[in-house]
Amino acid sequence: MGNKMGVIRKHAAHSPILSDLKTIYQAADEQKAQAALDRVTEKWSPKYPNSMKRRKDNRDAVSPIFKFSTTVRKVIYTTNAIESLNSTYRELNRQKSVFPSDTALLKALYLATFEATKKWTTTIRDWGQVYGELSIMYEGRLPE
Fold it and tell me: Distance from first CA to last CA of the chain, Å, rounded?
């Protein structure tokens, strides 16, 4: 979800809009999230008309996350690991912009991913609870 904030996130001057956007994803339930989305859209449409129009048009994308508890939702919308991995891939692309074959590219991505995972030492807060909830919801799909 953090990724949806796009260009807005890049500028510290936009912290008020970030605070408002968080009210959507941190809402207690779907109805409160939809109400927050309406408030945010109304407030920020004059300044960010395209972004707010996309949010309103894709309001159904917000709904599925509310089947999870607050703890699981926080893990889902935290994108630090994904952003770190994308950064690793960009670095690889800067170092070598042409690959002789698709296989060479896949091998390079595999090795970059393997190296990136070595840096992932921080545990996810409340992982036991999150894993337990996901195991119940997706029985048989997660390793024991």
Answer: 27
- Tell me the per-residue pLDDT of 14-69, one tens digit each, with 9 for 90 and over: 588 888 988 988 898 889 999 999 999 999 999 999 999 998 888 887 788 888 99
C-alpha span between 75 and 79 (Å, rounded): 8
Cα–Cα distance, 28 to 70 (Å, whole number):
8
- pTM exceeds 0.90, yes or no: no
Alpha helices in the chain (DSSP H): 15-25, 30-44, 49-57, 70-77, 80-95, 102-117, 127-137
Alpha-carbon gap, residue 42 to 52, rounded angstroms: 8
Contact 95, 112 (CB under 8 A): no
Let me know: does 26 contact 14? Beta carbons within 8 Å: no
Angle formed at CA 80 by CA 49 and CA 10, multiple of 5 degrees: 35
pLDDT in tens, 32-44: 999 999 999 999 9
